[in-house]
Specification:
Helices cover 78% and strands 0% of the residues. It is mainly alpha-helical and 174 residues long. Pfam families: Sigma70_r2, Sigma70_r4.
């Protein structure tokens, strides 16, 4: 009687041969059924896993294992379509990447610069350094020689004034 290890090696070799010979055709078949590359790959993988778990099918020979594999793949596709997950999921469309218009960017920068000039110097300084230069509240407090609470307060009131100025120009929602 052959050892378990020898049976497993034989089984693995047979499965590898079936995969090499039939996986591309199986993927094309499932791709036609589903219209989805990723789902087709998942179905092929599931079908091969089921074949791995049914070693008796491999012992029946090449034509039988091919037919069994294609039948299993078809059934997996049907099960997927009938599943509750499939009915609940809404296919998502990836939105097209919008490219920003350089004119829009220039106008936005111009408006922001104009509005920033209307703020007090203290508010403008903390906003520009925090949001444009990436400085932390602690760094700002140290450089401006004021407490961190003062920096936070200037940021809060400065951003509020900035938002109000943009609203007055009709550029943000109220």
């Amino acid at each position: 009687m052959p050892s378990r290890c020898a049976i497993n090696e034989t089984h693995t070799a047979l499965l590898q041969a079936v995969h090499d010979q039939h996986a591309p055709a199986l993927w094309r078949y499932v791709r036609r059924l589903t219209g989805d590359d990723q789902l087709a790959q998942d179905v092929v993988q599931e079908s091969l896993l089921r074949l791995w778990n049914s070693p008796s099918v491999l012992d029946q020979g090449e034509p039988a294992s091919r037919a069994w594999l294609f039948t299993v793949a078809r059934n997996v596709v049907i099960d997927e379509r009938r599943s509750a997950r499939s009915r609940r999921e809404v296919p998502s469309c990836v939105p097209e990447v919008t490219r920003s218009d350089p004119i829009d960017s220039a106008l936005d920068a111009w408006v922001i610069t104009d509005v920033l000039t209307q703020l007090t110097e203290d508010h403008r300084t903390v906003i520009v350094r925090a949001y444009y230069m990436g400085q932390s509240v602690a760094e700002l407090a140290e450089e401006l020689e004021v407490p961190e609470g003062t920096v936070r307060s200037r940021l809060f009131y400065g951003l509020r004034a900035l938002r109000l100025a943009l609203q007055e120009r009709g550029l943000t929602r109220r």
